[in-house]
Structure formats: C-alpha cells, structure tokens
Amino acid sequence: MTASFRSNGVRPYFKFSKWGLTPIRVLVRVAVVSCLAARAVSAQTHLVIVSGLGGEKRYVESFATMAQTLADAANKRLGIPDAEILWFGEDSISKKPFFKGQSTKANVEKAMRDLAARSKPGDQVVLVLIGHGSGDGENTKISIPGPDLSATDFARLLGAFSAQKVAFVNLTSASGDMLPILSAPNRVVITATKSAFERNESHFAQFFVDAFAKDVADADKDGRISLLEAFRYAVAETKRIYETDTKLQTEHAQFDDMGAKTGVAEPDGKTSQGLLARRFFLDAGMGGSSGGARLASNDPQLAALYKDKYAIEEQIDALRIKKTSMSEDAYDDALEALLVQLARKAKAIRELEGRKS
C-alpha cells in the first residue's frame, strides 16, 4: 500500500510507501536512465530486402551496395541469422552473401508467402525497399525486373502477418503515397518521401542504412538502434545535406506507427507517433553491441527479467496515451506504481549481470 499525502490540492513531492520515502522525480529519473528497452530472445527478426532496377550504372551499383551493407549489418552487427536475411536484387546471377535471387514479383511474393507460413506470433518482419519508385496512390510502385510490385501488392502480402510486428520501410523515390495504403495497427511504416511527386534520388535511403551499419544513430546510448532512432538520424542528415549544398530539399521522409493512415515528419516517440518504433529493434532479443540482452539468451532468469521489464515499459506507453482521459491524481498514481516496478526490474537485471549501474 502507498500512502499519499496531499494538502490544499497540491500533489506532494514525496510519497510514503513500504519501501520508504520516495521522491517521485527521482523515480522518473531512475526509470529513464535504467531503460535499456531490451527483449527476451523469444522473438525472431526476419529481414527482407528488395532492391530494384537502377537504370544508370551509378544507381545499379548504389542500390546493390546499400542492400548488401544493410544485410551485412543485420547479420554481423545485429545478430540476425543468415537464413532470416533475404535479399532480392536486380542481378539474376549474383553470388553475394544473403542474395536469394532476382527481385521479380514472383520471387518476392513467394518469399513473403513462405515467411508468413513459418514465422511465429510475436516475431518481427521487416521489409525494406531500395530503388526507384513511380506512380501514385495504390499504384505507387518500385521498379523491378518484369512486372512491378505496387502498394496494393505489398498491403496484400503484409496482411498475412497479423500476429507479427511488422515494419515496412520504403526507401525509394516517390514512395510517400504508399504510407496510407500500408498503414496498419502494430506496423511501422516509413517512406523516404512525402508524396509520389518527390521523385528525385533519395539521400534518406543511404542515411537510414548507415544508421544500422555505423555507430552514428544511438541517440539514447543504450547500445541499440531502434527504427525511431534510425528514422530521426536519417531525417536530420538528409536535411543537413541540402542545407550544406544550399539546395531546396526535394525529399521529406514520413513516418506512421499508429495505423493513422497519415504520416508525420517528426514523431516524438512519447505520446503518439513513435511509441512502437521506439522499441522496434532489428536485433530482437539479442541486445546488439550492448551485450546485456545478448547474455539473456543464455540465461533463462535474465531473459524473464528483460521480458517483464519490456512489458512494464509497454504499460507505461499505454498509460501515457490515456493521460488526457484520466484525472491528474489517478494518472500520477498509476505512473508511479509502474515506475517503481520498472526500477525494481532494472535493479534486478543489473545485479544479475554484475553491473553497478
């Protein structure tokens, strides 16, 4: 039981509980600092990369390089198994690592159907498109060998993953119109442009790949890169490129992870857009270079603690969304209770890992 002391309608700075006198602000600070946002290894990430036709030699090479770089980073830096990285590209005979065949409509559709059949509930499915885009609305497409894949096609393919957490990342030019078509609950949708009319080469694509391939995007310094961090990093670097060259920016990346059908350029990750992506890591359950959650993969007790911690963080996010419909006292009481639970889990994790802080 927690005894709260209020006078004259003013909320106290301290609350008494069976654990002693606890400053609310200190609890908040502890919870924020201790938040590693790691998950247990029960979830597996499946990464599908589709790189399209380049046309000019420089684009052919650029698209293939970005796809290879992302695949390498996913495997070597993020620990995604070889078998769960599927890259389809323009080349029909490539022997490069992770290359599974030409990026034809038939090959990609078969791969997605097979993945839907074998992926488990709770798994993460990440589909990344790299290349040239065209068309508008439901007919927005990525240019690939043979018949193109459209927004309608991708919506149909991803509809088979209702029990999985999904990310659709379209790094092509003219990709913006795909967002409202692909937007859905429990799905992160990112497009390199705001609409189909932004058709120039996308700088955003390279920076988004760099976010996972280099140590440049870890804003909260937890040793992992979330989709939200990758998006924000790529947006900032894209803007910097245009400002440095004193050119009018011709691409404006969009984001939606609420099923809102409308993209935003600056998700806050706190109260609305960005809550799902903030804890969407390609290295699901592996902990990236941070090491903590990677140890959890070999320790059932530690894995369980991480799982509980993640669940509490999800409850905090859900509570924040409901804040406007609650009284101030009810919200503060509920938040404090969750923060206490979170602090305890973080402390138990630190002790089990042998860390002091």
If you had to describe this structure to a student in words, what would you say it looks like?
- The protein is an alpha/beta fold.
- It folds into two domains: 19-38 and 290-353, no CATH class; 45-284, Rossmann fold.
- It is 39% helix and 15% strand.
- It has ten helices and 13 strands.
- The strands form three sheets. A seven-stranded mixed β-sheet has the order 6-5-4-7-11-12-13, sandwiched between helices. Strands 1-2-3 form a three-stranded antiparallel β-sheet.
- Strand 11, helix 5 (178-182) and strand 12 form a beta-alpha-beta unit.
- Helix 2 (57-77) runs parallel beside helix 6 (203-213) and helix 6 packs across helix 7.
- The radius of gyration is 22 Å and the shape is globular.
- Residues 1-22, 25-41 and 286-297 have low confidence and may be disordered.
Q: Can you count the helices?
A: 10
CATH class of the largest domain: Alpha Beta
Topology order in helix (H) and strand (E) letters: EEEHEHEEHEEEEHEHEHHEHHH
Principal-axis shape equals globular
The count of domains is 2
Structural class: alpha/beta
In terms of topology, how is this protein built?
Layout: E1 2-3, E2 14-17, E3 20-23, H1 24-34, E4 45-51, H2 57-77, E5 85-89, E6 99-102, H3 105-118, E7 124-130, E8 133-134, E9 141-142, E10 149-150, H4 151-158, E11 165-170, H5 178-182, E12 187-191, H6 203-213, H7 227-244, E13 254-256, H8 292-296, H9 300-321, H10 328-353
Parallel strand pairs: 4-5, 4-7, 5-6, 7-11, 11-12
Antiparallel strand pairs: 1-2, 2-3, 8-9, 9-10, 12-13
Helix pairs in contact: 1-10, 2-6, 6-7, 9-10
